[in-house]
Amino acid sequence: MPKITYVENDGTRHEVEVPTGNTVMEGARENNIPGIDADCGGACSCSTCHVYVDSAWIDRLPSPEGMEIDLLDFTIAPDERLSRLSCQIKVTDDMDGLVVVVPEEQAN
User: N or C: the chain end with fewer CB closer than 10 Å?
Assistant: First the structure.
């Protein structure tokens, strides 16, 4: 099972196993990662699962599409290159070691 590291704004790291086929958002919710609220439950309609993908990983993930691109414009502090909605990143075996950072504005 791939391990994903979620980094809180204060630097606290949470390395958790996320089943292949789940989303990065589901991994966060199942492991109570602070700051990833996912109010819409993964329907790509709220942007409360916004994360910054570590720059070493951004080019290794599929590019955002359609609705995700539109919603990223409405996040509090979007980064043109690193912002993603974690509900739209489906976990694969190749993502073992993925690192995502929760934006400061989403800190609980």
Answer: C
